[in-house]
Model the fold of this input.
Amino acid sequence: LARKADGGKAFEVVGEQIDAGPFGIAVKKDNTGLRDALKEAVDAIIADGSYQKVLDKWGAGTGAIDKAAINGGK
Done:
């Protein structure tokens, strides 16, 4: 958001994102239906390109994932 503030003039971007950290969506452990639906939805937006498009719009495209994971893939 800071990158877009004041029409993109409020801040100067000095480089690419250095390291992308993992982010998640908290779901109650026994709510496997919601967990699976969220994973399926994230995988769908990755597959159709809309996920990358949004990340690129906000300057975070280098931090994209290529598939959703449950519990960090563990």
